């Protein structure tokens, strides 16, 4: 059995990864070892009734015993460890959720329902670095796979609505703490007052901006607000998250950079789980809603086409209805009134912890187990 090291298993992505691996019986096919950056020597997760002791995630010797390492620990860890491991002669497979090495020329970005052929080619060519894509891009491409396969997309403008859990465990806790902070300061009488709602709105607005609102991680209130910047400032008007849109889309699809221009804004919203993206698509020709539905629905088993009407949209195309599901919803497809050009709007909604993070990692593990 292959020795598989799992780093970052207690974080947001890692917990979902473990849950999915248990559901799919992945642990039956590997000898798993759990690593920690903070608790080595302490008990690790119990899998199928078996206890484990955590290994030191900074121990190059312990890591070097692994045939395959899956890490959901984050980019700083990857930057610190990966090159050191290679310098020590390790030649195993590294599967990573972090963005640090995605654009590295040794890396293949993994999203097998969309780019399985590229993954197979990479394995055959001896590539040993496989990295999950940016969550928003991954989910948009999962939804749009049918149009991509038919080479129908000329360019995309992607406006994202990204959930708090997309930033990690500490951040989603902070959003919930912000909500709790506001609730704690409201009495039943204030909530139920049949008079003007303005005093309630004013009080909540004051609470949102109060010095006691917990904002340590996000740096700004998210409850009752949005944060219009994700990841670092590139200094050219773009956030790094926005830059990833075009760079990763083209790399995932195996296209020369710039072949499909992608631009947009990435926004953090007070959603617990699931990223949404409102996409403006310039297509290469007119595509009716019927053809669109047919193409996206038949591209792979994990897409759910939602007809563009109010009832279906508010019941099937929301983070609340999609959280925890492997189905990526795609809907609100309509032609935009722009000089009769084939420009369309569409909304994708998907669980960023599943297809946007953990699922491609565990599937890559299984691809490798079948190939090496
Ligand atoms: P995270 O929740 O912050 O977890 C990362 C690590 O932080 C954990 O493995 C844990 O390491 C440590 N940690 C410290 N305090 C913690 C706490 N209170 N609860 C849980 N863990 C805590 O990060 P993540 O969201 O899983 O992201 C991991 C990587 O995946 C990042 O590079 C991220 O960019 C990428 N990614 C995330 C998402 C997403 O939706 N979150 C999607 C795609 C990609 P120790 O156990 O070693 O202490």
Task: Reconstruct the topology from this structure.
Blueprint: E1 2-7, H1 12-23, E2 30-36, E3 55-56, H2 60-64, E4 68-71, H3 75-87, E5 93-96, E6 107-110, H4 112-124, E7 129-132, H5 135-149, E8 153-162, H6 169-184, H7 188-192, H8 198-208, E9 226-227, H9 240-252, E10 262-269, E11 275-283, H10 289-297, E12 303-305, H11 310-316, H12 319-322, E13 328-335, E14 343-350, H13 354-371
Parallel strand pairs: 1-2, 1-4, 2-3, 4-5, 5-7, 6-7, 8-10, 12-13
Antiparallel strand pairs: 8-11, 9-10, 11-14, 13-14
Bound molecules: NADP nicotinamide-adenine-dinucleotide phosphate (NAP).
The site of NADP nicotinamide-adenine-dinucleotide phosphate has 27 residues, from helix 1, helix 6 and helix 13.
Summarize the structure.
With 372 residues, the protein is an alpha/beta fold. The protein contains 13 helices and 14 strands.
Intertermini distance: 11 Å
**Quaternary organization:** single chain
Order of helices and strands: EHEEHEHEEHEHEHHHEHEEHEHHEEH
What overall geometry do the principal axes of the alpha carbons give?
globular
Mean pLDDT: 97
**Which small-molecule species are bound to the chains here?**
NADP nicotinamide-adenine-dinucleotide phosphate
Describe the strand arrangement of the main beta sheet, using strand numbers: 3-2-1-4-5-7-6
Helix content: 25-40%
Counting DSSP E segments of at least 2 residues, the number of strands comes to: 14
* Class derived from helix and strand content: alpha/beta
**Helix count from the secondary structure assignment:** 13
**Percent range for β-strand residues:** 15-25%
Largest sheet: 7 strands, parallel
Poorly predicted tracts of residues: none
Overall radius of gyration: 22 Å
